[in-house]
Each structure stands twice: as C-alpha cells, then as structure tokens.
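User: Sequence in, structure out. Go.
Assistant: Echoing your sequence, followed by the structure tokens.
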Amino acid sequence: MGIFNFFSKEKKEILDKGLEKTKENVFSKLSRALIGKSKVDDDVLDELEEVLITSDVGVETTLKIIERIEKRAAKDKYVNTAELHNVLREEIADLLIENNTGDTEDFSIPEGTSKPYVIMVVGVNGVGKTTTIGKLAYQFKQKGKSVYLGAADTFRAAAVEQLVVWGERAGVPVIKQKMGADPASVAYDTLNSAKANHADVVIIDTAGRLHNKIGLMNELTKIKNVMQKVVPDAPHEILLVLDGSTGQNAFEQARQFTAATEVNALAITKLDGTAKGGVVIGISDQFKTPVKYIGLGEGIEHLQVFRRKEFVDSLFGK
C-alpha cells in the first residue's frame, strides 16, 4: 500500500487528531449517560439527544438521528448500550449519504467540465477562507494540476497579501490588482491568464463581507457574469467556507450565503480547535449541500476531502 492509498494511515492520523476534542466531548457525555444502563430505552435516547445537541449537531438533525435509532431498535427488537456506538455510526453515515455528502475522489476535477475548472470561494472574514484557498491550491498542484489564484477580495489589503503568501507556499501564480479594484475585473483577468496558459484549475477569492443579501447577491452575480465571458459555464463550483468552531453561528452563515448565491459545496474549517465537530453532520443535513472539504489543522496538508465513513468512524470509534 503506497502513498496513493484512498485513505492512508497518515490521513487517518490527521483526521483522528483533528476530531479529538469533539470525540472526547461526545464519548465522555455518552459514557456518563450510559452508566448503569443495559439497553437503549427512552432515558438513554433522551440522554443521547442532549449529547448530540450540545455537540452542535443541531436540534432538527438530532431528532432525525434519534428517530432512526428508535426505528432500528424496534426492527432489531433489542439494541443494547454496547451496540449503540455501532448503530450511531451506521445511521449517521447513512444520513450523510442521503444528504449528498458522499465520498469524492481526492482533489479531483469532475469529468466532462471545461478547462479551467473554476471555483469561486465565499464566506465571511475570519473563517479561514484564504487559508483554505491556499491549501486547496497546494493539494491540486500535488495532483499534477496547474492552478491560478485570483485575489478578488480587493476591499482588504491584508486579504490580497495573505493570498499572495499562500500562492508562494503552494507554488502557484496569483493574479491581483490594486486595492479597491473591481472584483469582477480581477476574476476576468485571472480566467484570461489561466485560459491562455492552459491551466487546469482557477480559484477565485471573494470579499468576506456578510452585508445585506441583495448587495451580496449583486456582487457575486456580477463576478459570475464577467467570468462567463471567458469560461461560459463558470463558476463550476461555489465553495462556502464555514468555521466549525463557531457551532450554531456556522448554521446561520450557511443560511445567509445559500440564500444569496448558488452554493454547491462546503468546506468546514478549524475542526481541530473545537469540540463542536457535530456541526458537520447538522449542516450537511439541513442544507443538503455536500461537505467537500474539512480543515483539521494549520498545516498545508491538513485540508482533507470529506469522507463520511472515515469521519463517522473517527468520531464514534470503530
């Protein structure tokens, strides 16, 4: 088994370490809830409900999981507490696949899309948006893809500077203009350069402002329309970056951005610094948008493609 394993030992270690705080939180609460219990009854389900909600799975998703476990217990006639981790793992994994969060190939470009494959990245300031772009660029380059970055967050000098630094780390070009330039103009220039140089992937950073929905929608729509003059079906992916450590606030940001633009992929960052990793399950369920990437640390290799089975196995123990 070489370095190109679908899920290598090294990736598993990064995942386990990144979810350590959430796992400890879930397991310690679940263990306390199960003391003295031999079967999954109403009391155990009530305790489990509280564990999931306080791990930021969210109320609606938690109730779905509890209902699935109740049906499972009724069908199997009897589920003891020793089996509960297995049942939880299986039911949550099934829920994730039903919500379009299945496994995807490592940092691949979907077949049949025109080149360059264009990813427009959205999200508020501070969620790790620019960092995620840099790590994505690095991972695509490791896969042999040529990548261009567009610094279309022209409202903050720090955002452009940060993207340039990440571009240097990843070894990919960054197209930028002066502060306050039209973001759509930056996106246009980036796609033109990428197309002229036969690039495989373009990643466009956008302003991390969550102002009124109409203003946000107009700004992002303008960027999309201008990009389509160069690549008619761009952007192929609108990636919303959310900070997993903010728990329920991440739900609200997802709500705002999915209302403002056609988000079709999610990246959930900073899971290594929080006990709120359950937010991945809840957001996937509530918004039916695939969680494509998870951030598990500061290292350039700590952005992983989300794999439901490995995630759930890591969270609930195998």
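User: And one key feature?
Assistant: The first strand starts at residue 117 and ends at 122.
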